[in-house]
Amino acid sequence: MGxxxxxxxxxxxxxxxxxxxxxxxxxxxxxxxxxxxxxxLNLVIFSGSKSVxxxxxxxxxxxxxxxxxxxxxxxxxxxxxxxxxxxxxxxxTDVKKLDDRLVLPFIFVEGRLTYxxxxxxxxxxxxxxxxxIERYGNFEDEKNGLTNVSSExxxxxxxxxxxxxxxxxxxxxxxxxxxxxxxxxxxxxxxYEREYCRRTDENMEVHNKVKGNVDLFMSDPEKFxxxxxxxxxxxxxxxxxxxxxxxxxxIVAPLLEEKYPTFTDRMKFFWK
Length: 272
Hints:
With 272 residues, the protein is of the alpha+beta class.
């Protein structure tokens, strides 16, 4: 989320309410979020980085664009709301206009994501932040307004991910990825997103292709990336690949699904 998103000149909040209600009904039906969590859900609608509306207790209202800061949600500084984008804004995102670093997840993802899974993904970020803070306290502040997990937690997760990756991709060097809060949270959110799609049979064909594409990449990363650049007129680098926040989640989530048979067991991976 953030400045890379397009904005829409006018937002019909009643239409947004209809879209959100329909989406939440589907999400609730698959039982991946706690019912108490869903009942207290506070969704703040951002156009670009400006807050324009709020959905809470089944109703939507217009709000001042300065009331909420999108970075407070993205960095886990505030957990009393989930930042989302209008459905039309989300669906109008043109992948071709994303910069080289932001387009990189599409080397593994062949196709568009749905608005329903987008909401499930963003809600999962909020759940991760709440769970972490309950166990470890507030995230640590870093420069440029970013936050991070504690060194203790980061090292613990890094060792677990390293062990997992060595079973599948022994030549892959996790150290180059620079593990941090955002990348860990993206794995957590991706597991929720994929589980939503699996239980609803919505867009799962896109997710089922991810591991095959990762396997191809791992067999010859430089060639795979070069071919991607040639096909799409890009100039993505391996440095971009290691820096992009979503890459690790696309690599790791399918592996966790293979190792842990149930969604509950996969969530325990983060809180052992």
